[in-house]
Amino acid sequence: MASLKDLRNRIASVKATQKITKAMQMVAAAKLRRAQMSAEAARPYAERMDRVLANLAAGMKDSPEAPLLLRGTGSDKRHLLIVATAERGLAGAFNSSIARLARQHAERLIAEGKEVTILPVGRKGADVLRRTYASRLQPTVNLREVKNIGFNNAQDIAQQVLTAFDVGEFDVATLFFSRFKSVIAQIPTAQQIIPAEVPVEAAAGPAVPYEFEPDETEILAELLPRNVAIQIFRALLENAASEQGARMSAMDNATRNAGDMIKKLTMNYNRTRQAQITKELIEIISGAEAL
């Protein structure tokens, strides 16, 4: 049975932990608002880019004149998985859920006989995937020193991906991230970015005929590489908001659990102290009666 000193030390330790989790919850709440606004502001631009590309690409996807980023290499043998996670933990299942989705996708591709390479963006995803796919992992893109995600960060990643595509290292690239929905709901998402996917509703072409100047091929050659950077940027912003939301929820649960543990330890401490006092009183009374 734990002594009173041990119980006091445990109570003090849990209280200190509770202060830390409460502080982390408040910091995450402060960061969440700004990250959520950035993620929501990026969505209309990315969605509009998708519609513009769909209109331009309608009827050109299978054309030999279409850029490779649209029609692909003609093969789907080699796959690149871009797994975007956080640099830090203590965010509940945020990192593990993204890594799990990527792992399931990789397992399916490998079972089909495909070649899979993984580009981890963020240390936590790399740590999880290294246990199973260490030989397939590329060097991790480290964003630990980046305080605020900017478009230049996405451009650097996109340039690395596009260079690898140009030299024929892969045929299909899929981006994994967590789409922010609310503080308690983040949705792990997989999005193919190379070759660019044309929405089904736009596959038949726009309802109104457009004339483009310059022609569609030249415009697509300029927009498709930019679209890769935009989609990566959007994923990084969604991840930033999802991470803070998940951390806020996880730290709130940890603070509540610490409070429950403090109550139980305090009750145990009081019972142990009362039992010790009662024992001492019995010893005093017994000694007095013996005299």
Structure description:
The structure is a single chain. The chain has helices at residues 4-57, 68-71, 94-111, 123-133, 151-166, 216-290, and strands at residues 78-84, 115-121, 172-182, 185-194. The protein is an alpha/beta fold and 291 residues long. The protein has a four-stranded mixed sheet, with helices on both faces. The radius of gyration is 28 Å and the shape is elongated.
The outline comes out as: elongated
Q: What is the percentage of strand-forming residues?
A: 5-15%
| Biggest sheet: strand arrangement | 2-1-3-4
Mean pLDDT: 84
Number of helices: 6
Ends apart, CA distance between termini = 33 Å
As a percent range, the share of helical residues equals 55-70%
Structural class, judged by helices and strands?
Answer: alpha/beta
Number of strand segments = 4
Rounded to an integer, what's the Rg over CA atoms? 28 Å
Low-pLDDT residue intervals, each spanning 5 or more residues: 202-207
